Amino acid sequence: MPLTKLNAPFYERLALVLIAFCAMGYLVLLAKEILDPLIFGFLFAVLLLPVSDFFEKKLKLPRSASSFLSILLLVGFVGGILYLVGAQISNLANDWPMLKSQVEQSLTNLQQWVQGAFHITASKQMVYVHDTGKKIMASGTAVLGTTFGAISSLLLFYIFILIFTFFILFYRRLLLRFVLRVFEDDSSHVVLDIVENIQKILRQYIFGLLIEMIIVAGVAIAAFFIIGIKYAALLGIIVGLFNIIPYLGIFTALLLSTLITFATGTLAETGIVAVSVIVIHAIDANFLLPAIVGSKVRLNALITFIGIILGEMIWGLSGMFLSIPIIAIFKIIFDRVESLKPWGYLLGGDYEYKESAQKKMKTE
Fold it and tell me: Which end of the chain has the smaller Cβ count within 10 Å, N or C?
């Protein structure tokens, strides 16, 4: 018996869609432990696919070797960034005596301010500090165990990402043929178009983030060198790295950069660094991000912000990273399925309107 189209009122269809989204969200929460590294592995596999194809077709390497070599290049790139950060942090550790004296002086000034503002003597403040310190030391074993467990889980998470990346690269043709066989032959061209656009958009999005990170880090390093900040390279790298976290990264970068500057410099330099980070972020959000990243994924700001909040609620920090590419994948699918095109327009909105207006002006 052939399937018939559901002729129901809009509110009934909307209710069904919302119920489906709620059920899918619940399943995503249950399957976080496997879906989280799997989606990261899928993103890295899409990014490394041209590299793997180059090794396989040009250098005539087996698919397993080309996939493994591509992952080694990715690990080497990430390791190089971590080495740069670690080298700067080691320089910061060499100035530990100066940092210690600066922190002690800051604590003394803070103690005097508390005494003058709240009329709490220095002896009472020290008693409170010692009591707090004893409580922290008493729970030190539990804190250490929790920290060790968190680090172990994080390392295992990264290993799973690399494993999933390798298997997706290795079985990519098998996975594509499976997707094509799931749908009818008449829909194969639509499925291929969706797969090709997903690869293209995700690759452009990831490369856009990397380019944006490099530009922001370079501008921040140059600005901090001009100002005369001692650890300009470290602060610039911090600003560039945390800038890839949508919306909330700026607050983390601002906090870390001002704390490091306050511990190694003067209060005036701390204020200048804070203003510089805010100005750099404003330039990035209004010019770099729309030009480099926003034009690739074609998502409006409202949907992006809602997606980041939902991603953080569901999967935490990793959900914030994955929210934009996942929504971009849904938009690609929605735009190519006739009954879902209104939802695709909702996710993009302004971009589609601007593009149609520009095409209309050119034709006229």
Answer: N
